[in-house]
Amino acid sequence: MSPRVSLVSRPCSICNNLTDEFNYGVISCNPCKMVFRRVMKFETKFDHCLCGNKKSTSCRCCRFSACIAGGMKISCIQKYKHATLIQNLIKMDHKRNNTFFNYQMCEDLSLDQLMISGVPKIKDQGVRFTSHDWVSMEIYSTIEFMKNLDLVHILTSNDLMIFVKNAHFKCAIFFIAVRSYMAKMEFMTFPDNVDVFPEEISNVPDYSPKLLNRIRTLLISKFREFDVSIEELLLVVTIIICDPSVAGLSEFSMNVISQYQRIYSSALQAICQNKCKASWPTRFTNLLFLSNILTKTIKDLDDVVVLFKYHQPALPLRKLVKDSF
Ligand SMILES: [Zn+2]
Ligand SMILES: [Zn+2]
Q: Where is the NR LBD domain positioned along the sequence (predicted)?
């Protein structure tokens, strides 16, 4: 060992081998750095543990988990710099819109079936979508958006399911509001002026038009009030998606999801600082508060669905929608 190395050598925070390097925010040796970097850049596949959970340094899965537990920062990876991050979200949103407008579900799938084998087909020419059809595509394309997030590659299939189930429906509702707002509408609607509520709602005797209107307008009225940009909306929805506090997640996944949530929050904060200078904290808080407005909208929607189920038990709600209540 050279004198220089022995002077500054410390145990690697991940594997305890002596090192004089500092990578991704922690003292760490070169091999640990390379494992972290290759998994994060998807140069190698993040496999499941192959060593029987013996925490062997030759097991990429265990070593990568140790990198996360040891404090290596995902935010130090080049592609998570703010500009690149936002460009990627915009690309993912284009893809989501393309799926939403141009595809249709082949059959009525539950969420579990959809996660395993659900692939939509190109939309038949001249087909007229009802709100049931649109809502299915809204949910499908939201799940596709979620599955295009980088962090999905490093979650186990069990944690991925928990991650998707927690946010797919509420974020589909958020995306209806985003698209309607971007189309300069003051209320949530599907393309061709198809209402977000199915026609059958008029058969429910004591439904409240006021409640339905609040559901259609609440989120969009806040988007308009804060004059939000598409970049801000995509960051907000991704922060909502990356919720580390969902019950049932492994500690490893909680740690990864929470790191990603901080990365997206810090990008949103940077946009607010750019826009508002000194008063940025108010804007940042207002934008994060959209998550509470979404929760309120979902709560209202819940009340409508209860009424619906009571008065219209035979209503042909799609499995994807039924599964969400
Ligand atoms: Zn190491
Ligand atoms: Zn292992």
A: 101-325
Average pLDDT by stretches of 10, the chain with 325 residues: 54 94 94 92 75 87 92 88 92 97 89 82 91 94 94 89 95 98 97 91 80 96 97 98 96 94 96 94 98 97 85 78 77
Measured CA distances, 250 to 35, 36, 162 (Å): 21, 19, 10
What's the domain count of the chain? 2
Longest dimension (CA), the chain: 85
Write out the two tokens for 106: 């082949």
The ligand minimizing its distance to the Cα of 50 is 2
Same-domain pairing of 47 and 176: no
Rounded-to-integer distance, Cα 184 and Cα 286, Å:
21
Distance (Å, whole) CA 231 – CA 287: 12
Gyration radius of the chain's alpha carbons:
23
Contact 258, 249 (CB under 8 A): no
CA 325 to ligand 2 center in whole angstroms: 38
Predicted-assembly ipTM surpassing the 0.85 threshold: yes
Confidence at residue 45, expressed as pLDDT on a 0 to 100 scale? 67
**Residue type at 256 in one-letter notation:** V
What local confidence, expressed as pLDDT, does residue 3 receive? 37
Q: Which domain holds residue 49?
A: 3-72
Query: Relative to the alpha carbon of 46, which ligand is closest?
Result: 2
Query: Residue 70 Cα, ligand 2 centroid: separation in angstroms?
Result: 16
pLDDT recorded at residue 1: 36
Query: Distance from the CA of 257 to the center of ligand 2, in angstroms?
Result: 21
